[in-house]
Structures are given as C-alpha cells and as structure tokens.
Specification:
- With 147 residues, the protein is mainly alpha-helical.
- Helix content is 86%, strand content 5%.
- Strands 1-2 form a two-stranded antiparallel sheet.
C-alpha cells in the first residue's frame, strides 16, 4: 500500500465517523422538534380558553367602569347643586341672621348691665351656698377653706 492509499482510507474513516455523528445529532434534533411541536400544541389548546376568559373579564371590567363613570358624573352634578344651594342660602339668610344675632347680643349686653346695677344696689345675700363635689357647703365653711 502506498501513502496515498493510506491517506485515502484515513479520510474515508474520518468521513464515516463524521457522518455517523451528524446522523445522531440529526435524530436528536428531530426528537426535540417533535417534543417542541407537542408542547406548542398543548400550550395553544390551553391558552385559547384562557384568552377567551381574559377577554370576557376585560369586557366586564369596561362595563363596570362605565357604570362608575356615570355614578361619578351624577355625584359631581349633585355636589355642584349643593354648592349652589349653600351659596344661595348664605346670601339670602346670612346677612339678616348676622343682624339678628348682633341685635340679640346687644340686647343681652344691655340687660346684663341693668342686672349688674341692680345687684350693686341690693344688699349681699347672707346665706350663699356653694356646691363642692356633690355636697352643699355653707358660706362660713367656704370662707375658712379660702382663708
């Protein structure tokens, strides 16, 4: 055998080993692709109903949001009406009520001054009593406690 023939046999053996390794890799790749295909099919079967449920939930949430929006607009209208009513009541009754209150205060002050003058003219009360913690104490004892 010549050197060229040995080299040809070595190259042929090398190519045979390389082809067998590639065949094993291709078989495993085919198995992986089949498993991936099954997995995608299973995910698709389970995902479609989930997406339908999610879509129904989003529709329901949108309906509820529409109801809340209607309620919020009604509340805003009621608030503006109440504010307008409060302003009307304040402008209608506010001025006269302040005048009546001021008049009542003036009358009380005037009557209070008259009472003070009457008390100064009247003799002091002799038997004045004070209530301390639920008991009545005569004025003589009270003076002893103070002095």
């Amino acid at each position: 055998m010549t050197g060229g023939e040995v080299a040809g046999i070595l190259v042929a053996v090398f190519w045979a080993i390389l082809v067998s390794f590639l065949a094993v890799v291709l078989v495993r790749l085919a198995q992986t692709l089949r498993a991936t295909t099954r997995l995608v099919a299973d995910v698709t079967e389970k995902a479609v109903p989930l997406l339908a449920d999610a879509s129904a939930t989003v529709r329901s949430a949108q309906t509820q949001l529409d109801k809340v929006d209607a309620i919020a607009s009604d509340v805003q209208e009621v608030t503006s009406n109440a504010s307008a009513l409060a302003g009307t009541v304040a402008s209608t009754f506010g001025g006269p009520l302040v005048k009546v209150a001021a008049f009542g205060y003036g009358v009380r002050r005037a009557l209070g001054r008259d009472r003070d003058r009457d008390r100064q003219d009247a003799p002091p009360e002799a038997d004045r009593r004070t209530v301390i913690v639920g008991r009545t104490v005569p004025s003589a004892r009270r003076r002893k406690q103070k002095g």
